[in-house]
Design goal:
By secondary structure, this protein is α/β, with parallel strands linked by helices. Helix content is about 40%, strand content about 20%. It contains twelve helices and eleven strands.
Amino acid sequence: MGDNDPPAVKTASIKIALRVAIERLIEGSCQTPRLDAELLLAHVVGQERSWLHTHPEALLSRQEVTTFIDFIARRQQGEPVAYLTGHKEFYGLDFLVTPAVLIPRPETELIVELLLANDQAHRLPPHIADIGTGSGCLAITLAKHLPQAVISAVDISPFALAVARQNAERHAVTDRITFWSGDLLAPLEQSFDIIVSNPPYVSESELAATAPEIRYHEPQTALLAGPDGLAVIRRLLPEAKIKLNTKGLLLVEIGANQGPLVAELAREIFVEARVSIEKDLAGRDRVLVVKT
């Protein structure tokens, strides 16, 4: 892995390959060069990251070096690690991801934590709707942790639904989740005890200011929600009001600056419900909670 990669690629040790890759990622202004290089190399060799640390002198094959060089070059250009490896961890589970779906984020795990801590989740059986399921990370994680739950997962993108179905198969929960194609709650006729959603909530100005790897690589339809970022939430809340059972629970991920306005919108629609905003680990507004 020299400055100019020759057509005949030579082998290299784990230690040297990582050192050169980290240098290149630093040059490319990558925010987490060591982590990204290790994740990509671990994927190439089919091992855990810890294996790299205990086998620094292990030699890569020429094919592994070629693949790793390609991954690092693409990462330098801003392509997300999760799209390069095709995998992303969420709440301790491994999910397949493609550019058709939003990459699962740690902040969204707060929805799972809040739901599992609520008594409503442990009624037998709770009927749950996941609106804008994407990779299926929320629906599938809830199915794994709530064996009695009956779950409906909706997405407007057929390509996202294909990924979600693959993930459901990998995690053996296809018998517990029904996937629906459509806009928000429109495909669903029944009512639900719990509704969860990580909808698009990024404003046009915020999207323009996001990192290139988000702006140019992740699906804008899963991010962008009009001039103020609330276009989808404004439609979601009244639909959820109709479909949410008495003593129901609604959990919606929101932007860090949207808490007060979203809470106001929710109180106007769910007049007699308890409405609150839960903060993430960074202390930012992250999840709208409505208890009817």
